[in-house]
Amino acid sequence: MTQAIKVNKEENRKILTGNHAAAHAFRQAKVEVVSAYPITPQSPVVEKISDFIAKGKLNARFVRVESEHSALAVCCAASATGSRVGTATSAHGLELMYEMLPWASGNRLPIIINLATRALGAPWSVWTDHQDFITVRDVGWIQLFCENNQEIYDTNLQAFKIAEDPRVFLPTIVGYDGYILSHTMMPVILEDQKEIDNFLPPINHHINLSDISKVKGVDPVTTPHIVKRKEGTAPGYYEYRYSLQKALESSIDVVKQAHDEFAEEFGRSYGNGIYKTYLTKDADSVIFAMGSIASQARNALETLRNSGLNIGLVSLRLFRPFPAEDLRNLMAQFKNIIVFDRDIGYGYEGVLSYELKSALYGLNNPPFIKGFIVGLGGRDVSDDQIIEGVEKGLDYAEKGEFSNKTEFIGLKLDELDFLNRGEK
Amino acid sequence: MTNSKKDYQKILGSIQTPVEGEAGETGTWSSLKPIIDLDKCIPVKSGKYVCFNCWLYCPEGVISRTIPPEVDNRYCKGCGICMEECPVQAITMKEVKIK
Amino acid sequence: MDLREEEFIYPGTRACAGCGMALIYRMALKALGPKTIGTVPASCLTVLHGMQGFCSTKISVLHTPFATTGAAASGILGSLEAKGLDDEICVLAFAGDGGTTDIGIQALSGAVERGTNFVYACYDNEAYMNTGVQRSGSTPLGAYSTTTPGGKTTHKKDMPKIMEAHGIPYVATANAAYPLDLYEKFQKARKIKGPKYIHILAPCPPGWGFDPKDTIKIGRLANETGFWPLYEVVDGIFYLSKKSKKLLNRENRKPIQDYLGSQKRFRDLGENIIKAYNEYIDNLWKNIEKRIEE
Hints:
The complex is a heterotrimer.
Chain A: H1 3-11, E1 13-16, H2 18-28, E2 33-36, H3 44-54, E3 61-64, H4 68-80, E4 85-89, H5 91-96, H6 100-106, E5 112-117, H7 131-135, E6 142-145, H8 149-163, E7 172-177, E8 186-189, H9 193-199, E9 217-218, E10 227-229, E11 232-234, H10 237-266, E12 275-278, E13 285-289, H11 291-306, E14 311-316, E15 318-320, H12 324-331, E16 336-341, H13 351-359, E17 368-374, H14 383-399, E18 408-409, H15 417-421
Parallel strand pairs in A: 2-3, 2-4, 4-5, 5-7, 6-7, 13-14, 13-16, 16-17, 17-18
Antiparallel strand pairs in A: 1-8, 6-15, 10-11, 12-14
Helix pairs in contact in A: 2-3, 2-8, 4-6, 8-10, 11-14, 12-13
Chain B: H1 7-10, E1 15-18, E2 32-36, H2 42-46, H3 53-57, H4 81-85, E3 91-95
Antiparallel strand pairs in B: 2-3
Chain C: H1 20-32, E1 36-41, H2 44-49, E2 53-55, E3 60-64, H3 69-83, E4 90-96, H4 97-102, H5 105-113, E5 119-124, H6 159-164, E6 170-175, H7 179-191, E7 196-201, H8 205-209, H9 215-224, E8 231-234, E9 237-240, H10 242-245, H11 256-260, H12 271-293
């Protein structure tokens, strides 16, 4: 790397919150239509975008809607009219968008949502966990998760490239922990506009209502059957959903490609774009986690390693499509996997835990997998909790005690007086 | 590259192109069709482009604004609005054999 | 009057015989012309537009979930603005009464409050006809529906008035039975910048229970009895439309029974309902009188 470029990059280094990193990415991606509704902890994303527009730094239309349901409806319509669009939300906002989520993917609209994660009510919480992110796993969106503010910026730029790739045409959620990243300042390198324009050319959409010479209806009632007329044939609903699923499955390669291209252009990479490994080379056990939990695990690994354990970390970056094949190839070499979920597939167990189990099904000598629940509703996750989980998990592994029952780490039931009163 | 597109890359959003008779030949919905008595029809009698209530009120747009007005029986659903709205009662609804 | 010859709907649609909505839509598209992008929520209009692959209309239309019509229009417009096409292309939202007065009211209110430059048309067939005649907020007093088997106990929501309260530049009522009036109102709306709202009564033969040939006749009775007055509110100023003017004089209004009695949905109406209707209509016209004097 030449000295000149280095100096240049230093100049572009800013101290930004995760939310503002996302907003800068939107600005440099030259998003054309933004529509959003305020919700904590996402709001600073769209405040910053408003500011960019007001100051003439971003030439975009900001449709200030009366609900998140409308926000995503605006995004869908604007995308179907051929524009590059995006929004940001959290928790209840994402839940209110729910109806429009499969609508966007079903119409193959490359919309980007920045999701500053937050726990779902009831009861009210504004603090992070991954329940909102996890809950929309079955609606046909690509879902990426970030561990730091630079990654938020970089992933947003990659997300537009992935979503708008003609092999993909799928909406994408970029997730990051509310407050932990959304409101925390970190150094972020903002790349030169010219280089970004080079990396991310203008959208070439498969659908564009504004081209009124090509008259068409979009998203009509679509029957279970193929429609045949003398004018042509049209797919049934089943074919559209097949196509959506196959596009998702094959988007894994596009995610990798976009990541690699970005890494080559800008010199920053995130594992293989799918997952990031840390201290796994000599490891016989690994921690499997996402976002803030993976970050915390990085910290805890020092202590764990010092205690003599050969343990590493696999931090998942691409959650949907679930990269089962990549994970099988990677995980086959480990004896034990301790999974930490900041979410629950309520009624079953932590979602990362059971999805990993299903991904590794059929391996010869599969790793022992034990999942733990941590940090719901923003409960602090300390090194101690990670260490506790690892020790417990390895103990179960040694004893061969397998269980799908959830175990919560960091619960403080013993501090609740009223629980103990009756017993004494 | 574009020729090597996979099937699923060619089936994107569900879209429509306009066609006549999207619901088929809707004339089959009813055998009652308007018969226009040209001796009474105002545009025919006057030779002027006046009246055309039948054309104006037809929900399906199957009556032409011509002298004489013509009904497209392939698509006329036989509602009878034209009969009701003809100011000189030139239209009657009659059983017509549909092909 | 110079009515556009060109049709924008191909014949052979899925609309029922004698459909009031079909006539309304035909006239509206004629008035707005080919440079129009429409958006349509779940409704009978979805049905008219046709199924996958092929449609009956020549303008571009985005189908959108029930609650989102106003937002979808904003999205189309946002994109058109970004492309500099918003002056050239008219954005038309077209929804039923359920999609407007009930599930779509929030998105519509938001869209007009932010000054979206579009035409919003509500064709009002006074119930959820597409799903099998369930009552909506726009179903009139006493009307039978599958969810009000004993007749609805409240009057319909005054949606045009709600829209007027948003302070938008153009609000109008119309009626399938007066296609020229309707045509003019859409033409006028297209020329005005900002949110335009047109609420059109759409007689529905199967839902209201009358012979398809009587769609226009029944629509006309809604006006002539004073039940559905035709008017415009342009920049806050009220104008009674020509076809409703003579109804200012109470003597000229036909008895409400003429209208109600023509439809099966109003069978077995009690005296008290008729009385309530007469009071409702009297009040309606008293208010109109007041507004004209202003």
